Amino acid sequence: MYRSETYLEVRYYETDLMGIVHHSNYIRYFECARHQALVDLGLPICKIEHMGIMMPVVSVECHYKMPATRGDTLKIVSTVNEMPKVKIKIDSTIYNTNGDIICTGSVTLGFIHAENRRPTRVPAFISDLFAPYFK
What we know:
Layout: E1 2-9, H1 25-40, H2 45-50, E2 53-54, E3 57-64, E4 73-80, E5 87-95, E6 101-110, E7 112-113, H3 124-130
Antiparallel strand pairs: 1-4, 2-7, 3-6, 4-5, 5-6
């Protein structure tokens, strides 16, 4: 299993007049954490794209438990629980400042060749980085 943690402060514009985070922002939080997880692995998305691979979102799942509010610092734990093959699924759990779970979900991404937009299996340069976490 690969695991990464990201911390984000809830910004004013992400909230409504009651100071509660709008539901659409949790998908953005997943993306920020996914980006950081890849950076932590030594594989920022710009490097993946430079190697000719794109990773489109195939599906998103989000389960809201309680609202995040203005002033919260969110901890987002991202995990990859299965070795990527044709797709990669990144599970996320978001915690508020008090450590309460406010949201869980997952994002599944595919792999395509940038030049022809055709699907491909996980490239070796990606699977090689994940391999040590799945022995």
